[in-house]
Each structure stands twice: as C-alpha cells, then as structure tokens.
C-alpha cells in the first residue's frame, strides 16, 4: 500500500515569475489556478479560451494562469510563455497543429512556474517529485496491474525516474498533466485539482461544490 500524501499547501506565489499582472491582483479568498504548457494544444484550444471567458464576468473567485514544464523542456520555457503572451505565437506541437498565430492569448494574471534542473534541486524538491511521479503511475496503471506488483516495482524507483527539470507548482499539486485546474484558498490551501478538458458548466459546478464544503 502507498503512504503517499499530496501536498496541501501551495508554494509562496512570490516564488513565481509573474509575466502579466501579479499576485496582488488576486483579492478573493477562493482562487482558481490554471496550469498550462506552451507546447500543449489542448491548453490553447480549450482551457485558455475558457479561462478568458471566466475573466470577462465578475465571480466570487480569482483566476490566474501558471505556465509550467513537466515534459518537452525545449518548448515549455519561460521564453515560450512570453512569446504566447506578448507576440501571440505558438511553439512546438501547438504550432504544428494549430498554426503559429494563437487565437487565444491569456488575459488573466500569468506567471511562469519555478522550474529548476533536477541535478541542482534540493532533496526535498526531488523527494516530492519522486513521490508525485509514483502516485501518477499508480493512477495510470490502476486496474492494469495488481497493487502488490505495482508497489514492488515502484519501490525500486529512484531519482532516475524524475524528469531533467522539476516544476515546483506542477509537482506540488500532484498534477497528471496539462491543462490542470487547481482550486485553492488565498492562504495557499489546496482544495482540489482537476485535469483535462472541461466545459464552463462543469468547471463552475465543480468550483461551487468544492467551495461550499
């Protein structure tokens, strides 16, 4: 059995590199973070347009976006995030599938994740990424292998399974990929997370349900 426990508190927002707006723009107790990657077509096609729509209307929560990197590190960079924001251009797979010019540019406060090379990351950060990676594997392999065999395999995994770079916000929220929506309080307390494509009705229903607990 796994003893994995996902983090319950986000890192301080001051650690993020704010490219548009800042943490001071987030004034509500309830806050919605959208995790994207520049090299994620689904983020551009579905998540960013939805986030922009939510920005147009007054809500009882704040919304902001964090560009992260858990793969394709040559494309999911701070430079690529800036290219999207300030030039409205795609990179990598997103460029190949959707064209160079972005139809949807984030309008909300926007930051770049704390991304550090694994080789110089702290032990605490590497341990967090390792355990989150193992937990992600458990979710992906659920029903495909017996829990005992899977845990036996995972028990042998070490730092070598961690990517070349560690994105602190991505791994702290135990994200499965991008886009991931994270609902949290202004003090950083993580309430819930949701991965993948979602409609506005589904997202608002999820927020209302979690926010009323």
- Uncertain parts: none
Q: Which percent range fits the helix content?
A: 25-40%
The radius of gyration computed from the alpha-carbon positions, rounded to a whole number of angstroms, is 17 Å
Oligomer: single chain
The largest sheet, given as strand count, sense and whether it forms a barrel, is: 6 strands, mixed
> Termini separation (Å)?
29 Å
Which class do the helix and strand fractions yield? alpha/beta
Percent of residues in beta strands:
15-25%
Shape: globular
Order of helices and strands: EEHEHHEEHHEHEEH
What is the number of strand segments? 8
In which order are the strands of the major sheet placed? 1-4-3-2-7-8
Tally of alpha and pi helices: 7
Mean pLDDT: 90
Overview of this protein structure:
- The structure is a single chain.
- The protein has 213 residues and is an alpha/beta fold.
- It has helices at residues 41-56, 78-87, 92-98, 123-141, 147-154, 168-172, 200-211; strands spanning 17-20, 30-36, 62-67, 110-112, 115-117, 165-167, 180-185, 190-195.
- Helix 1 crosses helix 3.
- The longest helix has 19 residues, at 123-141.
- The mean pLDDT is 90.
């Amino acid at each position: 059995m796994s003893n994995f426990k996902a983090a319950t508190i986000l890192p301080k927002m001051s650690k993020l590199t704010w490219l548009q707006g800042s943490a001071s723009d987030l004034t509500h107790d309830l806050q919605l973070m959208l995790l994207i990657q520049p090299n994620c077509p689904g983020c551009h096609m579905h998540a960013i347009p939805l986030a922009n729509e939510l920005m147009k209307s007054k809500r009882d929560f704040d919304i902001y976006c964090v560009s992260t990197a858990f793969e394709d590190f040559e494309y999911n960079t701070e430079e690529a995030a800036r290219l999207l924001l300030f030039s409205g251009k795609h990179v990598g797979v997103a460029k190949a599938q959707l064209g160079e010019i972005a139809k949807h540019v984030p309008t909300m406060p926007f930051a770049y994740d704390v991304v550090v090379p694994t080789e110089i990351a702290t032990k605490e950060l590497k341990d967090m990424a390792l355990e989150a990676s193992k937990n992600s594997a458990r979710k992906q392999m659920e029903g495909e292998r017996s829990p005992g065999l899977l845990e036996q395999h995972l028990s042998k995994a070490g730092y070598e399974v961690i990517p070349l770079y560690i994105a602190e916000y991505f791994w702290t929220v135990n994200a499965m990929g991008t886009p991931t929506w994270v609902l949290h309080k202004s003090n950083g307390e993580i309430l819930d997370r949701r991965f993948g494509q979602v409609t506005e009705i589904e997202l608002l229903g999820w927020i209302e349900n979690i926010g009323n607990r």
